[in-house]
Amino acid sequence: IDGSFSYMQGGECFGTSIALTHFGKPVLGVLTNPAINFKAWGTIETGSYLNGKELNFSRPETESPVLLLGPGQYAGPSYQRALEKLQPDKVLIKRSQVRKALMIMADEADYTFSFPSEVFNGFSLNYWDIAAAIAIFKSAGGVATDLYGNDIDFSGPDLKIKQGHFLASPG
Questions:
Q1: Helix (H) or strand (E) holding 133
Q2: What per-residue confidence (pLDDT) applies to 58?
Q3: By CB atoms within 10 Å of each CB, which of 28, 33, 58, 96 scores lowest?
Q4: How many CB atoms lie within 10 A of CB 1?
Q5: Is 161 helix (H, G, I), strand (E, B) or coil?
Q6: What span, in angstroms and rounded, lies between the C-alpha atoms of 129 and 1?
Q7: How many CA atoms lie within 13 A of 168 on its CB side?
Q8: pLDDT score for 66
Q9: Phi and psi at residue 140, to the nearest 5°
Q10: Region for 51 from its dihedrals, namely left if φ exceeds 0, alpha if ψ lies in -120 to 50, beta otherwise
Q11: Is 105 left (phi over 0), alpha (psi -120 to 50) or beta?
Q12: Are strands 111-114 and 165-168 parallel, antiparallel or unpaired?
């Protein structure tokens, strides 16, 4: 379960995230958020689906970009510098990685990211936080990489995403 704090307080920023990896690459992903009735799944071979319909990133490029961050992320100087460069029209704060990924899939936002652990006070996401989202995004043609544009290798022994991550709809 992702976003257990929100779940315990009756909020809607939580969900489940299930992934299957093969040789360090996510090949199947399932994300659910029962509070808002969202379910997404995808495999590299069969494509991706959101609430039973084929996932199609369709947010118009003419709309101003919407960035999703976690509650403590935007406070650091590195994020402030990134925001100055990216200049999103809107920044939404959501706790759950599942919720952020589903919002991008539902065309409610454009992208989310996290910095490498050495930049963000040693904090890093766990494999289970984003592996399912990466399988779904990649099978739908979305962008899902580390912060340097490389595929994330999920075969390491410490289960941490130390190079940061970037999820975005194409375009």
A1: helix 127-139
A2: 61
A3: 58
A4: 12
A5: strand
A6: 9
A7: 17
A8: 85
A9: -100, 5
A10: left
A11: alpha
A12: antiparallel
Q: How far apart are CA 77 and CA 144, in angstroms?
A: 24
Residue 77 pLDDT: 72
Low-confidence ranges of the chain (pLDDT < 50): none
**Does the predicted model carry a pTM greater than 0.70?**
yes
- For helices 127-139 and 97-105, angle between their N-to-C axes, nearest 10 degrees: 10
Pairing, β 90-93 against β 66-69: parallel
Q: Give residue 62's region: left, alpha or beta (phi > 0; psi -120 to 50).
A: alpha
Q: b/e for 72-109, b at 16 or more Cβ within 10 A? A: ebeeeeebeebeeeeebeebeebbbbbbbbbbbbbbeb
Q: What is the pLDDT of residues 74-83, one digit of tens each?
A: 566 777 777 7
| Helix residue ranges, H only, 24-126 | 77-86, 97-105
